[in-house]
Amino acid sequence: MHERLLPASPNWYCSRCSDVNTKGVLGFGAKNTVYLLKLTATSPTVLGELNGHTERVSGFTFCRHDGHENICASSSDDKTVKIWDIGQKASLTEHSVHQSTISAIHWSPVEKGLVVSGDEKGIVVCYWYGRNDTHSFFPEPRTIFCLTCSPHNENHVAVGYKDGMIVLIDISKKGEVVHRLRGHEEEIHALAWCPDAKEETLYNHPEDITDSSNGIKDGEIGGYLASGSRDQTVRIWSTARGKGVMTLKLPFLKRRGAGADPGVKERLWLTVHWPNGRPSQVISSCFGGEMVAWDLTKSGKQKWTLLGSSSDSQNHSRIVFNLSSVRLDDRELLISSSMDREIKCWDLASLECCWTLPTLGGFVYSVSFSPVAIGCLALGVGDSMIRVWNTLSVQNPYDTRTYWQGIKSKVTALAWHPVKEGSLAFGTDDGKVGIYEAYSNKPPQISSTFHRRTVYCLGWGPPIPPLSFGGAGDRPSHSLYSCAGEGTILQHDPWNLSAEATNIDKLIRDTNNIKHKLSPHTDLRWKPDGKVVAIGNEDGSIEVYAAPSLKLLCSVQQHHKIINALRWHHPHSGRPELHALLASGSSNAIVYVHDLRTVIENPSESPVLVTEAFRSLSGHTNKITNLAWSPHHDARLVTVCYDGTAQVWDVLNEEPLCNYRGHSGRLLCVQWSPIDPDLVWTGGDDFTVQEWAVSKQEHARPPKTGRRRVEMEKKKVPQKKTKKKKKVVGKSGAKVEENEAPMGEEEKGAAGSGPDEGQSDDEAEEEEGERPSVPITIGLSKETNKDTCGAERTYNGGKSYPAVKKDVKDEKRKEKIELPVKKRKARSVLPLSTSMDHRPKEELQQDCLALASVRHTKGELAGCVPGTGEHIQLGLFTDREALWRMFKEEEESHVEAGHYDSVTYLRLWKGDLIGALHLATEKGELTDHLVSLAPMAGYQVWARTVESYVKQLCMQEQFLKAASHLVSVHKLYEAVALLKAHQLYREAIALAKARLQDEDPVLKDLYMSWAAVLERDGHYATAAKCYLAADASFDAAKVIAKKGDVMSLVTAASLAKIAGESDLSHSLSLRCAKDLMLSQDWLAAQDILSKQNTLLGHRLQFCVSEMLTRRLARTGVVSWSHASAHAWSEPTEEDFLGAVSRVWENTFGLTPTDLDEIRALRHQLKAIENPPATHSVPMKQLLSHLALDVALYVLGHLLGDWASVVEDLLRAVTRGFQAGHFALMMEMCQLLLPQGMDSVAAYRQKLLQGGDESLVVYRSLEAFICYQFMYKDWWGRVRCSVPPVEDGDPNHEGGTGSQSKDKDVDATQLGVSQLEGIWKVLLSEPHANLQATRRVIEDIQSRVSRLVQQHRPQESQPSPGAPPHTGTCDLTPEPSSLEGPAGLESMQRSSVADSEAFPALVVQVTEHQKKIAAIPDHVKKYPFPDVTECCIVLLYMNKHFGVIPHHVCVEATSLLRRYGTTGTLHEAWQKLTL
Question: Would you say residue 915 has pLDDT above 50?
Fold first, then answer.
């Protein structure tokens, strides 16, 4: 399905995650998928994927036997081993014998059906594919890192373990250990068997000979085994003797001028490969991505040769994980995969790199083609790297450069400078904005202003104030604009990124005098001419501003969910009316296209509100993520969506053209090739970028929701719910570098892809898993808990005895609690002196003597100091100084024991309050009691103590108590800030409201901050209250309307009306009324509008829509039923227009004589966008547009503005024709022109006063009335089976059969003279000339497209300029008679296209465009029926019924000869003239 594809990166730290079969097909595991590549010596081609595993693929291996090259096996962390057929890309069988993570797998090269796998617990499983038999062995209780089956003995398997042990087992003897090969000190990364079974003598240094006691006999059977270990050695083992014969130490080849440190082993993965046919050569990886070829027959430095030594750029830049080889076209090719996310192919003869395939290690968030260096495609990827792909390279189809310096986060947005070559702006997940110069080796420039959240959008545009101030040479020609997840747009100076970026919201507010809060911005897009910028918002609105002052021109209120993508139509179209098309995609599944030409070219003084789309593209089933206009076509758009598909649309016809389904995940970005009009590039969360051809897709529309959702769920990767670890460690035990995952895939916390920004789905689930499963109730009384239990028992509806048992247990527990418990003695404050009282009696008596001596001698005795040492207890009985000494020693003892409260008591007792407070503060042992004592030491001490206590309480998460203490020292603002910082908004507002002035800005800030949090969490009603309290009524109404249901919209509209926000109130009322109209609830819709006095014009439109719908329901054109309706809309026999006027006057109070009011109403309705109809417009929306036309028609009739009346009438009549609904067109003619041609003729007299210009509209209207009469005449004759008569009989009156009893004016009842007048109106030569010229231009454009596609001769691409099917031919009795053989016209065009050159076709287009320019404007301005179609119908009727006068037939034939020259028309009318 794709042309080229960059796949996901091979998984890391796997011993065998890639393999190649004998036919040159490489398979490798990436995430939970196996990718297949077809290899040649010049380039690879991606063949497809094998999908089925639910977790990371840990191993992959091909079957090596003839006839079974397409059979392969894979292992996964989901503990399954699957067998695949790569031809069918389907799983043949699987087994899940392993109970632990599988770490190694290999398909036996000797036993055709044997697949051997090992897991981290040491279990080896042998699975015989074909007989579905398994055997498990447990040779060693160690973690298996790798294993390989012997190519010489079908029963021997070598197993490498994490601790450096290698074991050779015999599976025919229940896994009996044949040899234990000891020598490596750390984990075994890879094992490889020598392709030759004989063990020839290898070159050995004396120190390399491991087996000094026994030599190796030449030609001994067993086979050498090579092993690579993290201990930086490659060892060669003799499996015949079970001994090591050679040790190869890795050479230190660290590039970039630095030698490798032998002590640093973290970044080493030593894989080995023994190529077939080369028994003396082993390939191994080395430090930092180098690879070494070892010649086992040589010594010293001659023993190894570096691969890719001719150029440093050939080598991998990081460690290599897997090696495999294959012989193709007499060349031995080696395939390597590395941590640098590249797959390389090497020629083993020259040891040089043949080609490099870059792979991707993250979501592809952005793709962007350079407007200067055509064909350079930049990729922004979630692996913290930017790739620039030269897609036009002939020698290397995957010529890619990688940029990583200065990024360090997921690259989520890219934008090339529009005129400066190589200048690429990028935005990242961590809010960084920078500019890379792609053609230099310098690191990027980084803006000094960071966004707080993910950068979603970047754009280059003209400078706006303040950057636009100054002369032309003092400022850059383009500024860089960035939009991020916090909802702000910053303008960066590319000449000085170190300067502070400016937020454009300030300029928007100042220019447009906006007082309310602006909705967070989500996307911006400058029009290519730089005159206006479109900004998408979180609430679904789109605002268009004029540069440089950013004056608001219009607000598009079409989407009601977050805007994800905006795109202006390209400016190099030959049709200027398309230049102002703005396509938008949001989180709902519909893409809207708005025509803003009038708004931009003729801006009004006040902003215009746009509520109707020019085109609506529906078909996707999930949110739209990106879109792009084709630079090669007019109004052709490609959109990508979370449904996993890309859709190409013909916008003008609202038709889906093709649907691409090659991705296995959600799509995030899209770009149309600037070179090839048939190629599109898409990227998604499946870690791939894919190039695909529009003409090769088999599907035209997006898939149905159910089927695609099932497919997506099957391909989705459920992550393991493991416990979070501080370090991510690979199998080698090395810490993985920052921003790298062991399997080479990023977390799902991508930009806009996780539950919260920067948090993955798995992290959210882990956090939930760590929470206790039992709900925690805080602050609930026992009665509340009992009620809750009772309610739960009633809800469960089960038996009540478990609850009874629980109550009994509770009673027993209470009884136990009531039992008397012996109180624990409190800890002594003076433990040292107290302990001295528990000595023997003799010592206590000696203390008495010593105390008596001290007190009576009035001095200290020798060796006796009361209060210290052995006499510490005497300090309590002598003077104060002795007591202080005793206190000091007691304090020291308490500090050592950690009893700081006791120290505090002692200091308080001796009056050292400051010391007590200092100690308690230092140790975090402050209490309420201590704080209450602090004022005794002075105000400053008290304030410092309170501040310290507040910090202590915050550490203990007692925020309310901390705030209360701050209030006690009059730090009110700090208390409020503390509560706000910890999300206690309600309490913060209560405190601020109680103590601060009402006009204090802190109070408003609290309300606004809390409202933002509530709004984000979906609590819209409470958020609205906050906005109202902050005098932000506009924001309050907007947030209530966010939910989008009728009740919310009604409330929001009423709130906006009360607050004086009339424009917002009108907008919300209209939105609600439209939703009710679509559900056919007419009563509620009118009730909503009636609350707004200024929406009378819209009420009149809804009135017409209701009456029209009920009229059409009676005739069968409308099939649905209404939910509610007014009595005045009941269809009656009264004329429709008369009924409308009566209802307007009687029900809505419209006075026909009040011309000023009528003009105001007409002006109000004229402001509503009423786009032309297309075939795909829904019927309800079509009727709404029709009602607007009819309402304008009636208002114009009341004003007597007959030119406008006929224009509105023409739009109402032709709208059904443009939508391909002929029956609707006929009914509208009957309702609006009940007297047929007489009704039309009545307007002619009134238009004569306006001159010829006014009659142009009349002629177009007359033509469409005649057009529908022509078909009614034809069908009437078919029904009545009118017998044929001679051609041109003037006395012939049509219709001898039964006449229709309907009140419709049946054309068969008209005379020939009247019919002749109808036909003359239709056979207009000026219109035939215009229509034929347009058909020729479309035909030439299709030939030009075929010339462009000549390099794809096998493709069959539909003509982009083919005229749309009008829908009228479907109603003809014999359509086959009106059309030539299928494919005739296309064959003619193809043959002409092959014979003409491109310049000649361009000249022809120019000449025909000049012809169209020469045609009078009044012919081109208004629609007209297809003249050649009318001519063919007339000739058909003449042939079968003979009712056409001869001269009319001659005129029709003449017109066909001149203007019906295209293949299909020519064939059709020639059949009728034979």
Answer: yes
Give the residue from 1242, 1419, 1255 showing the smallest Cα distance to 1327.
Answer: 1419
Sequence-distant (≥ 6) Cβ neighbours of residue 1403 within 8 angstroms: none
Q: Which residues of 375-398 are buried (b: 16+ CB within 10 A; e: fewer)?
A: ebbbbbbbbbbbbbbbbeeeeebb
Contact 635, 650 (CB under 8 A): yes
SS (H, E, C) 1016-1030: HHCCHHHHHHHHHHC
Query: How do beta strands 220-221 and 198-199 pair?
Result: antiparallel
Structure-token pair, residue 666: 């959600």
d(CA 1244, CA 1198): 17
| pLDDT tops 90 at residue 395 | no
**Per-residue model confidence as pLDDT tens digits over 430-478:** 999 999 998 888 899 999 999 999 999 999 999 998 887 665 566 788 9
The 10 Å Cβ neighbour count of residue 1 is: 15
Q: How far apart are CA 1196 and CA 1176, in angstroms?
A: 30
Highest mean pLDDT among 232-236, 1270-1274, 1364-1368: 232-236
User: Does the CA dihedral 1169-1172-1178-1182 come out positive or negative?
Assistant: positive
Residues with Cβ < 8 Å from 1038, sequence gap 6 or more? 519, 539, 1052, 1064
DSSP state of 312: G
Per-residue pLDDT for 910 more than 70? yes
1053, 1088 in Cβ contact below 8 A? Answer: yes
Q: How far apart (Å, rounded) are the C-alpha atoms in residues 798 and 800?
A: 6
753 contacts: CB under 8 Å, gap ≥ 6? 363, 666, 685
C-alpha count within 13 angstroms, C-beta hemisphere, residue 1400 = 8
DSSP-derived secondary structure for 238-257: ETTTTEEEEEEEPP---STT
Q: Which residue, 741, 640, 742, is CA-closest to 685?
A: 640
CA count, 13 A, side-chain hemisphere, 386:
31
Q: How far apart are CA 592 and CA 1177, in angstroms?
A: 12
* Strands in 307-384 per DSSP E: 320-328, 331-338, 342-347, 352-358, 364-369, 376-381
In the prediction, which pLDDT does 1343 show? 77
Structure-model confidence comparison of residues 921 and 682, the more confident one = 682
CB contact set of 1309 (below 8 Å; sequence gap of 6+): 1294, 1295, 1299
How many helices and strands in the chain, by DSSP H and E?
38, 59
Q: What is the DSSP letter of 756?
A: B
* H-assigned helices in 1219-1324: 1222-1232, 1237-1247, 1252-1280, 1312-1322
* Rounded CA separation 741/13 (Å): 10
Tens digit of each residue's pLDDT (9 = 90 or more) over 1075-1116: 899 889 999 999 999 988 888 999 999 999 999 999 898 888
| DSSP-assigned states of every residue in 1347-1403 | HHGGG-TT--PPPTTPPPP-SSGGGSS-GGGTS-STTHHHHHHHHHHHHS-HHHHHH
Burial class (CB in 10 A: 0-12, 13-18, 19+), 415: buried
Q: Is the pLDDT of residue 784 over 50?
A: no
At residue 215 the predicted structure's pLDDT band, cuts being 50, 70 and 90, is very low
* Pairwise CA distance, residues 233 & 934, whole Å: 70
Task: Render pLDDT for 111-121 as a digit per residue (tens, 0 to 9).
Answer: 989 999 999 99
Mean pLDDT on 477-499: 93
Residues recorded for the chain: 1474
> Do residues 641 and 589 touch, judged by C-beta distance below 8 A?
yes
For 335-353, the pLDDT digits (tens) are 999 999 999 999 999 999 9
* pLDDT tens digits, 1253-1290: 667 888 888 888 888 888 888 887 777 654 444 444 43
Reported as a pLDDT band with limits 50, 70 and 90, residue 801 is: very low
> DSSP state, 769?
H
